[in-house]
Amino acid sequence: xxxxxxxxxxDDTNPIQPVRDESLPGWRRAAGLISLLLAVLLTAGTTVLxxxxxxxxxxxxxxxxxxxxxxxxxxxxxxxxxxxxxPEADVNPASGGGGAAIQAAVFPTLxxxxxxxxxxxxxxxxxxxxxxxxxxxxxxxxxxxIPDRPRRNVIGYTIVEGDTIFSIAERYGLTPETIxxxxxxxxxxxxxxxxxxxxxxxxxxxxxxxxxxxxGEIAASYGISDPYIVIDSxxxxxxGVTPETxxxxxxxxxxxxxxxxxxxxxxxxxxxxGDVNQSGGSFVSFAPGEAGSCGRVSNVGGSFWSxxxxxxxxxxxxxxxxxxxxxxxxxxxxxKAANGGVVIFAGWNSWGYGNTIVLSHGPFTTLYxxxxxxxxxxGQIVNxxxxxxxxxxxxxxxxxxxxxEIRYLxxxxxxxxxIPF
Length: 421
Description:
By secondary structure, the protein is of the alpha+beta class.
């Protein structure tokens, strides 16, 4: 090893650095040659890949109905518009160029003008074309329709403006009597908005127990001979009860098919002309639209009052829900006009009285219900005491009797205050 003197022109403040003259060992030189050879090979391979031509992609296959995803298989119509292959196309692969010819024969092409004509034309909705393929999805209704189930409980209904017992009964498929028999009878002539009433699931009576009557006695009072109709009813919770059981006072039970007292409904009355508030007007119509209504009839003033029947038994008096008196008598017993007047209704009615006659006496009207016969006609003038029909058992009646009412300006009055029965 030798040391080389630095040039003399260098600053002497720089220290003298020794320079080592040493040759590389042989194994390092071999490693360097191998690395250089690998780099040359890698470069050559990359060059070859870049020079070679790209291989052609496989020709696409015609789409079929089975290739359509299930989500797209809707009830739409797909029309394939065929085009003619060029006449010079050679479909023989041996002729050289057969690939292009086969592609032209299998896949139709559209010119820009054809494409614009198709897009601007109307959408086809008919299925008459033989060149069309219809792909149909098995559509289904995603909603489950649950049929209406019978109601099994008593509900509370809140009265709104314009409600009547008849409209509520029609809404729930019940009779007006069921609505009346399921609530305090004061609702019959005085429904008030905001009032809550009971509505049964079936026709019948909603009874509140009181006193010491047994279940069998309660059922019988509403015309139910078999008390187990009440006990086994799905509308009551009477498991373990027998016909001899006395239920605690205040227990409410449904009597399916039961019937309580006769309800007197107030048919519509129309008055016009004259002094309606004093004389009752010049014309009167009672229950217009009913089969027995006489329509618009000239009003006639009355004379004196008399009993509508000679031999009878007094069975029921006047209440807010029974707007008359019931007089029991043999079928066919003559019924007489209680005052002189004019016939304004004669025939069957829909409010429970069966065959009925209504007479007008100025501001008063009298009603005779459950008749077996009617001996007068519409517009006929009658005198007090004249026979107009016979006692019967028609309509909602529990036995032969006359239901008799007196009304002043169409408001029911207690008949016993006018005629001493």
